[in-house]
Amino acid sequence: MSDSLPSTALLVLSVWVLLVGGATPTVVEPTRPYEPGLSHPAPRPAEHGDGAGVGIVATTPRDCSYCVLANFSAGLDAADVAFSALTGDLYVAEHDSDSVSVIDPNSGRIVNSISLASNPCTCPGRIVVDDARATAYVLTGGMNSITVVNISTNQVVGSVLVGGGPGGEALDTNTGILYVTNTASMNISLVSTQTDKVVAWRAAGRDPAAVAYDRVNGDVYVANFMSDNLTVIDGRTQLTIGSIPTGSTPGGIAVDPSSDLVYVTNFGSNNVSIINGSTNTVLASVPVGVYPLGAIVDPFNGEVYVANSYSNNISVISGRLGQVIATIGPVPTPEFFAYDAMSGYLYSADGPSNEVSWIAPQPALLGLQVTPGTASTTVGRSVSFSATPACFPVVCGPGIVYHWAVSNPLGTMASPGGAVGVFVAGASAGNLTLYVNATLAGYNASGQPVAITILPELSSVGIAPPSVELFPRTLVTLTANAVCAGGSCARMVNYSWMSDGQDGTLLGSSGSIVQYRAGNVSGTEAISVTATIAGESPRSGHANVTVVVNQSRVSSPHFAFGLSPSEWTMIFSLLAASLLLAIVLVLLLRRKRRGTTANLSPDSKKAGNSDRQERRGGLAAELAGRSAAPERKE
After folding, report:
1. Distances (CA, A) of 546 to 66, 347, 509, 557
2. Strand pairing class (336-339; 420-425)
3. Is the dihedral of CA 579, 585, 586, 587 positive or negative?
4. What is the pLDDT of residues 244-273, one digit of tens each?
5. Of 258, 315, 250, whose CA–CA distance to 282 is shortest?
């Protein structure tokens, strides 16, 4: 197929462009401005326009990217399409049926039709929706006017006369000014959306076909189809401030509000001019398909969709790379676009094919979910982690590159790439952090850091004493001791004790120390302990102790009154200690008395002796007198 049309066909197309208009009106601002290489949060959850329950069977999976998911039947000659976040519906201007079709994107069906006919041909072209005023503005070229539609009631509520052959329109929502290009009168009408009246006129170049508003610098760009340039108007003063050269016959404009780049489709030269909105200079020219018309920016990822009306496909330009990165097709005669910022999908008005194409963009990588969120393992062992990406608006698909890393050399990543990362612990216990990030089409996303604990490896466990011989009803203390490789594990081990329960009693079932009381029956009993590293049940140790109860000593005299030799020994020890203590106390008292006597002076001793002698003499005389006295008679 030739890249050019016969002169007659070109003339017909040129006249059609002059009548119908140019490119996409104001694009929807993203939830967050696009910045190449950064992750972006998801826009609001879609209540409408997310494609759920589409009534038309798509020929491709819903999770594809850069593809047509389905085609919706519209009226005759779908000249343009706009999306309303207020109603969640698509509004399609039907050029040949003098009406606007209302399509529910959830079902893909026409739910209403708004008639615009008031004369033999209103010939609706471009359409802009103002959700703040619940109003749609439809260019009705057959009447050189704008038809005003209330989208809440789907009723025509008024019209505004503009210049000859209105072809394009763009809305400045800040000032409420609607800019309308008039191809026949080669000027621009400034319409107040508050009064629905023309408030000013501005001159333009030859056959102004499209117009766009740059909300970053406040400028208005007008594509002059036959002048091969743009007219630049200061949106604040409404004065013309210059012009910018473009390719041949510019027919559409789209503005990226995040990068302040202006994209102009050049119908005759089959390329797109990229203009710096800050300096109003041309940066590059990107080849696209044949006869590009409409263009729209996906504000979420900064990519530009260009409708190639004659090659029946859509070129996707990366705003970050400045080149075509994908081609969507076949799409029958694509002309102009609408973008649903709530769902992230695009819709293409396909002109003579009487259809609207539902288009899935390249998914944007939003974030990563890492599973498990925390982990522990033992030295020398491995643990696997999975990274689950989240994308918008479709599933992520292939092309994601993963990067796994750890914070210190306590371990290594055996699988540093892919959605599954395998961590291998080294020879030492400790703590570290796992990190993962992913990239997709210029987007970066990081998963939450994962804390990893490396535990020592349990190599053995023993019991002290390993065997013991007991008398009946006696106690023994058993101590378990675990040995670990890679570090101390004293505080990390859980112990579980068991006995075969022949006759004795195990006093305790956990902890490193327990006691066992023998019963009255002689025999052998096995006591075991199992040691487990905390959180790692597969790493366990097992040890046994053998207890022998000697029943032959039950008849020994040492068992008088039912007491064991050890109990008698304790009693005798207490009695001996008590006796020894009593002897020591008596000796101390005697010594104290002697010490008191030795400390008296000679005179005191003599006086004491005299007193004692006198007391003794008096006592002897008294006893003698009692002996000599006659016996009392009664």
Report:
1. 74, 82, 17, 27
2. unpaired
3. positive
4. 999 999 999 999 988 999 999 999 999 999
5. 250
